[in-house]
C-alpha cells in the first residue's frame, strides 16, 4: 500500500555551509575549515547572540547558536560583526548560479542559505546523473563566491532534506544520496529523535515517554496508535520515517501564503524591569500596528509574552480578545499592559514578544459613549501620516521622542535587517 505514495523524482537540497561565517571568511580570504571565526557583535558584550560559527569551530563542538560568553576561552576567535546586507547579496548571487542550470519553475528557495531543486527533466539534457549535476553546481558556487556547500539527493523533498541533514555530514564531498531502500540502515538508527527534520524537542519528549528513542522505533510503531495520540501529525510522522512525502517543488512555488498574524520578538542585551520595559513594549506595538495599517487589516486578538533572564528562567505567554477589531496602538498597548500587570513576577526580563491574530479587513470602528472620539480620530490621522513618511524616507525618519531615552531600542532595530546589522 505504501508503494503508491512513493515519488520517484530527482530532488536535490543544497545548503550553504555555515553561510554567514563562510561569507565572512570569503571576504577575508580565509579558509572556513581552518579559521576560528564567529559572526557576532562583540561590542554588545558577552550576552550577545552568536549568529554563526565557522566549520572549523563546529568540528570542535562549538554550537552554531549560543552567546558570546559560552564560546571557548582557549581559542583565539576572530569576531565579525553581522552584515545582513552582504549575506543577502551573496545569497542572491548564488541563486543566480542555480538559475544558470535550471529553470526557476524547478527551484524552491527554502531559506537564505538553502534551496530545493528538481533535476528530473535535466538528466537527459545534461547527459549526467543528478549527483554529477549537483557537483557541477556546487563547484560553480565555490568558484564564484568561495563559499562551500553541502547537498542531499533523494526521490522527494523530504528524502533530499534528510540526506542533507544526516548523510552529507559524513561524506568527503559533502554530498549524500538516499533512496527508500537506504532508510533502515541510514535513517532508522538515528538518535536522538530531534535529529530528524520535523521532530522538535516537545515531540521528542512525548515519543520518548512512549518508548521511542530511535527513528526506527517510530517506523515500526502502530500507525493507528500514533494517529490516536497525535492526530494527523502522528500519522504524517510515521509516513515520514518511511520516506513518504507527497509535496512537489512546483506545488510549493504555486502556493500563495496568506498572512494570518503579525508579530515581533526581541531578545534584549541587558536585564529590563518595569517601567523601562514599557518603552520596549510600546515600540513593538508601534511596529505591529503599522504593519496592520499598511496591509489594511485589523486584529481581534492580542498575544503578549515575556521571557525572564537565563539565570531565572521561565516567563509567560498570554492572549486577550478585543471587543472589536483594531489597528490602534493605544488599544493594543493597553491590552499588553493588562497582561503584563496580571502575570509579571518582578523578575529580570530578557525577551519580549508581541503579536496580533484573527485578522480581518479594515472596517469602521464602533465608538462607545465613554471614548474620546475626537482624540481617537486625530490619533489615527497622525499615525497614518507617520506611516507614509516612514514608507517614503525609511523607518527612522520619524520616531517617538521617547526613542531618545536609554531604554529604547527602536532606532538601532530600524537600521537592521531581520533583527541584525545591515
Summarize the structure.
It contains 16 helices and 16 strands.
Strand content: 15-25%
Any idea what the CATH architecture of the domain at 262-417 is?
2-Layer Sandwich
Kindly name the structural category.
alpha+beta
Termini, distance in Å? 51 Å
Number of helical segments? 16
CATH level 1 class label of the domain at 262-417: Alpha Beta
What report would you give on this structure?
The chain is of the alpha+beta class. Among the domains are: 19-85, 3-Layer(aba) Sandwich (MutS, DNA mismatch repair protein, domain I), CATH 3.40.1170.60; 187-251, 5' to 3' exonuclease, C-terminal subdomain (DNA polymerase, domain 1), CATH 1.10.150.20; 262-417, Dna Ligase, domain 1. The chain has helices at 19-28, 55-59, 84-101, 123-126, 130-145, 157-167, 183-186, 201-209, 215-219, 223-230, 232-241, 249-254, 276-294, 329-343, 373-393, 410-414, and strands at 11-16, 37-39, 49-50, 52-53, 66-67, 78-80, 107-111, 114-118, 149-154, 175-177, 261-272, 297-308, 315-326, 349-361, 416-417, 420-421. The chain has a five-stranded mixed beta sheet. Helix 10 (223-230) packs antiparallel against helix 11. The chain is globular and about 70 Å long.
Q: What's the layout of helices and strands?
A:
Elements: E1 11-16, H1 19-28, E2 37-39, E3 49-50, E4 52-53, H2 55-59, E5 66-67, E6 78-80, H3 84-101, E7 107-111, E8 114-118, H4 123-126, H5 130-145, E9 149-154, H6 157-167, E10 175-177, H7 183-186, H8 201-209, H9 215-219, H10 223-230, H11 232-241, H12 249-254, E11 261-272, H13 276-294, E12 297-308, E13 315-326, H14 329-343, E14 349-361, H15 373-393, H16 410-414, E15 416-417, E16 420-421
Parallel strand pairs: 2-6, 9-10
Antiparallel strand pairs: 1-8, 1-9, 2-4, 3-5, 7-8, 11-14, 12-13, 12-14, 15-16
Helix pairs in contact: 3-5, 10-11, 13-14
